[in-house]
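Q: Hi! First time asking for a complex rather than a single chain. Here are the components, and I think there are two in total. Is that enough to go on?
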Amino acid sequence: MRERAVQFGPGQTLIGIATPRLRNENDPDRPTWIFLNAGIVNRVGPHRFTVKLARRVAMAGFPALRFDLSGLGDSRPRSGVTFEQAAIQDIRDAMDHLQHTTQASKFVLCGLCSGADNSVRAALVDPRIAAIALLDPYAYRTIGFYVRRLIRQVGRVSSWKTLARRVGGVLRRYAWQRPSAGARNAESGPSPPQPTYDRPTPERSAFAADLWTILDRGAHILVVYSGGMEDYSYAGQFNAAFRRYGLGGRIPAEFLPESNHTYTEIAQQRLLGDLLVAWADRHFPAAVASPGRQAGSVG
Amino acid sequence: MLWKYAMRPFFFGRSERLLFGTYHAPAIRSSRPGAVLLCNPFGQEAIQAHRIYATLAAKLSKVGQHVLRFDYYGTGDSAGEVEEGSQSEWLQNIVEAHEELLALSGASRVNWVGLRYGASLAVLAGRSLRRAIASLVLWDPVVDGSEYLQYLEKIHAAFMRKDMRCWRPSAARGTESLGFPLGSDLKSQIASIDLSGVNSPKARQVTVVTTNPTKSCERFREAMAGWSEFTQWVEVTSSSPWNSDDAMNAMLVPMDTLDAIVARVLEVP
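A: Yes, that's all I need. Here is the structure of the assembled complex.
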């Protein structure tokens, strides 16, 4: 696998690494993966997991690019725009570069945390993005979340009085956030409680509307939640949280309870890589089956 | 020669085991031209050091130095995986990067800066040079490899316990640290590090910058007293704890330490 250092964008100041695919070299229908920064960590990714993921998808027959958004890692900041605006332009510059240099026409964006947020923003405005894989995107609490938390806490309560107070608190919160008969894209009732998350979380209805906009133009979405997300605690939580918006079952939602937020452990990094490739293979199957296919290691 | 772009990412080295490097051209023509090679720490510390080294490289470039930062084989953006590399190969990588920097810069005055495990590798690699470098700056070097392995194991468990409510390790204890595998060969090579017992590297000057002096550092200081080269010990106690557990995703840049290193590089005759 011979990777290339690439420079593109304004004044060639965006920097990344392009990974060629190892199989299905002449399959134009297979999109190029673009991996985005997680928080302020450079393109290598937390615990180098972005390098491993890029090589994992390349081994499965998808070219990949990991690069630093402007102002992160080795890429220079853009002036006069917000970080969010700059991120969208950076991603479009990356796609322009790949389109020009490799004739790629379809792309999959993959990002963790803020990288997931930027994937959604870019997919809303650029139709070349055929799919997005969101790792720990915004999470929204549900009645199931509170019930599970309560069950965990029951073992720790010191008295029935404490338990009653906690049950009452959960019921009050659920009543507050319970929707009216809302259809998709429709805001209903007061805002749900904001998760204790260190990035601003949009209203659930706004996030649902964004996801629908992306789905409606034929793009695919995968969401993967780790066990490190404070506001996500069971496999069906995404579907439950978005059922009233008609998204339940429309977006595959995976839950990796043994993984922490940054996929620190090598076994969890491998699991994530396998999961991403399996999803991509389903939506973008190879034109010609390759005999002797080998599973790649991301470890 | 000044490059068209202040910074250039590229791959170099043996075609089957390519290394990733980032070259920073001097931003000004200096009366004290020279070149600086930055040697990475290991594992998660290397990721946390990325911003620190990028900042240091920019500072050095602004005072007229050529700078090369690079990733060892199997680390960062370089080819391969950690388990395919070894400490002995990483020592060779430092020499390869040194030769690349000589070719890029044409400089005759070359300095090496190493951080943590990278400082230890720089000391060991510096012993095999044919020609002495101008100076070697060792920033919080790993003096005792066995102690360092204990640290790697401890910080992994501490981080995971803090990050996960009910952490169940998915690998045997001591076989990985914060996403980086620790194979038995690598562990035995790291365990063999004892800077207090090594001969001096081929550098005209050696400076140790410490932000958190330990007992093993003191042993190293005593050993350095016996070296023939000019040695200096600089303590920067106000420095930000860039590699602490709390700073795992903060990317702190200890500017006071960087300023001390830049000053030291410029002082070297």
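A: Strands of chain A lie at 4-8, 14-19, 32-35, 64-67, 107-112, 129-135, 220-226, 253-256. Let me know if you'd like any chain examined more closely.
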